[in-house]
Amino acid sequence: MARAAMATTEAELPPTPPGERHLILVDGSGYIFRAFHALPPMTRPDGTHVNAVFGFTQMLTQFLQKHVGTHIAVVFDAGRMTFRNTIYAGYKAHRPEAPPELIPQFILIREATDAVGVARIELDGYEADDLIATYARAFTEEGGRVTIVSSDKDLMQLVRDDVEMLDPIKQKPIRAPEVFEKFGVEPRLVADVQALAGDATDNVPGVPGIGVKTAAALLAEFGDLEGLLAGAHTIKQPKRREALMENAELARISKRLVLLDDDAPMPLAIEAMVARSPDPAALEFFLRTQGFRSLLARLGFGEAALHPAARRDSTPMPEAPAEAPPFGPYETVTDLDTLGRWIAEAKAAGIMALDTETDSLDSLRAALSGISLATRPGRACYIPLRHGAVAQDMLSAPAPTQISPEAALAALKPLLEDPSVLKVLQNAKYDLEVLARPENGAIAVAPIDDTMVISYAMEAGRYGHGMDELSQRHLGHTPITYDSVTGTGRARIPFAEVPLDKATAYAAEDADVTLRLWHVLKPRLRAEQTLALYEQVDRRIIGVLQAMETTGIKVDGAELARIGEDFAQRLVTMEARIHTLAGKPFNVGSPKQLGEILFDELKLPGGKKGKAGAWGTDVTVLEDLAAQGIDLARAVLDWRQIAKLKSTYVDGLQAQLDPRTGRVHTNYSLANTSTGRLASTEPNLQNIPVRSEEGQRIRAAFVAEPGHVLLAADYSQIELRLLAHLADVPTLREAFARGEDIHSRTASEIFGIPAGQVDKEARRRAKTINFGIIYGMSAFGLAGRLGITAGEARGIIDAYFGQYPGIRDCMERLKAEAREHGYVRTSFGKKLWIAEIGSRDPQRRAGAERAAINAPFQGGAAEVIKRAMVRLPRALREAGLGARMLLQVHDELVFEVPDAELEATSMIVKRIMETVAELRVPLAVDIGAGRSWSDAH
User: Fold this and answer.
1) Are residues 416 and 460 part of one domain?
2) Domain limits at 612?
3) Does 36 reside within a domain?
4) What tens digit of pLDDT does each residue of 572-606 get?
5) Minimal CA–CA distance to 315: which of 296, 290, 293, 297?
6) Of the residues 618, 637, 656, the one at which a domain ends
7) Is 872 among the domain residues?
8) Residue 584, Cβ neighbours under 10 Å: how many?
9) Which residues form the 5'-3' exonuclease domain (predicted)?
10) Dihedral through CA 597, CA 603, CA 604, CA 607, nearest 10?
11) pTM of the entire structure?
12) Per-residue pLDDT averaged across 721-742, rounded?
């Protein structure tokens, strides 16, 4: 899989330079609750629950093996009541009590911290976050640097040059850019954003109607919370102005609640936190007392089942709870005889996990470094293939002993293609594409299961489905990071240069984890009622997408260059006009220079300076000016549009063009969206503009090979058809059955216009309403789209639901389903989890309800086209046709078809796509063909 390359986004803590002081502060609560919820119940023989203790100890010991500081401490909450409860009685009032089975584990977790030799800190009346803030301030004032191990958003206000955070799940650093990405402001203003937006989890009230994005925009305009409250009376939007003016004191109280106290008492001296090794006897005694055999083995204490008489103390050892085999040690396979034994073992088992190690995320260009196999949990190996090649070339150093790639792949090919042995992979499409390449043996791996896709089939939208996250969630195990074996930054080495012992530990663990995940996740498919969907669609589409990505689509590089030249010339002409309108030349791409022209020199109204002192010139500012008739603002907006098209869709496509094939090869992500839709990346071919003239010109550069045409097959109004199906609206069903124009029919019925007299404007409004309803659009949103008042928009929506009451009932049913279960289902039974549907924040909850309304339609459309995609290749082959499916763009499929087979191919494509699902309304597909993608529309 692509985990090696994907892990380049992860970051181990950089080593502490000699002489530098580095304090690591671990947020104990984050570890505790993550461990408790990730692991199944586990008890000692005396009945004490220990799953959170086990997970906490495992995470902390693994962290200590990988991250080194001069000082370290785990910081705990001492109790629920703090000084904040005297400020606001409702603070954290809604938080539930800890589960009964977790409460006895708190004291054991503190004992675990002591046992591994780490200082621990807690103080009555203060939250752990306050203590972290205090020690971070004190330590940096002494010239040291601090790393806070937590993903808690409240702690992000502490980030600065000498204080960073480390996300313990993603192992990613959180610095100022990551804070800005989450909150839209620099760290010093995080508390101001939280004071405005509030926090439903901690019952921080905030200002009603103000969310994070709005808060960030307001602070960018007014500087900080007090500046905003002082200038609230100048805000144009009446509701926002009134909310801020009426709730100013509530905002100030909220800031006192969220602002961390960095001057709390320090219950432990900083020097008491100096990093030290644990006392082996104390650690072993603690682990044996809890019965943690796998941790005993991993930490080198020998036989986990050591007889009590052989121990250093006479305390009776309890019976250890049954545990899974340890992760490692694993075997490095460097000769064909050993490889033969592993192949025989895999055949006998009938199931194996498989993983590849490469040097790139691009599966069509990545060099294969090695392959790992697992035949049962805890039993895995790594087969290096090209290790040491770089060092050998550069230093004439001998390469490590290993099997030649040709010999190893030839030996593995029969096993990997054996239909009687199931191959389990994580993100299988990547490995399949790597192994299918001729230089890697042209191996057609089958049959397969994909743990990423299995997880996604059950829990789309609930959490991520990468291997590391799934391992932590379902196995309670944090895999070795890529950075820890290859290094980071300039010190990073290619995986093929990693010493074989480290490479084996990392790569074989991947296969081991994948097989363990399969044993946990695959049995759940039937219980979750998603087995049929996985087997019939999700698993089968992996090979379909592999073929599409490998084929790619041809691009006329010369035409793309001509478009780029034309865009460049247009930009020059546009710049000249902009300079004339401005009265002087300047860098149009510089927001700072543009702001000075607009507001300093031309003295235009409405300018606002940001915190850095520069005038704001974003699209909202320019559109406001353009609406006032300012030609310069409109000209700059037009220039920006062409500049973005050129950089993103012309220059970007040219960079992605494969010189070997003259084609671009996109990558389809199977498990990245919450609705089940595929996502296209590198390059993204799903976001090329459709309706604009410039977008059509770019699509014209996508062409068929000589003797072929491109065929585009597009589902017509599929989401509206799913709405008519789910809501069972008789009039809509009738309109679709008759092939009527649904928007004209809607306009006629809700506006009371005779069917033959609906004009373009009425149809446009009806179309906006039809699609807006699917997306849960409010009266305010509809008013903005139609340019009418909110009252008029409310009247239109009421008329719509009055005409189609089944739609309102359907929407309410979906919201209720999401609130009750946390998810909604598509027409085909797929669960789509809705984040924040239980939020106490009305704004977030309303957004979640809109998502719950839309998800079955987007998700259902995604499933319909996926079903077509898995059936079409076989149908075309059986008909003896040579068409190849190239692209999926939302509701559209693009094929490359031999000229002589266009009619026959069109008939099959249309038939399969229109009959792939049985709905209460017919599916309709529009077919077009031409030499280019643009001509096919």
Assistant:
1) yes
2) 556-656
3) yes
4) 999 999 999 999 999 998 888 999 999 989 988 88
5) 290
6) 656
7) no
8) 8
9) 21-276
10) 80
11) 0.65
12) 86
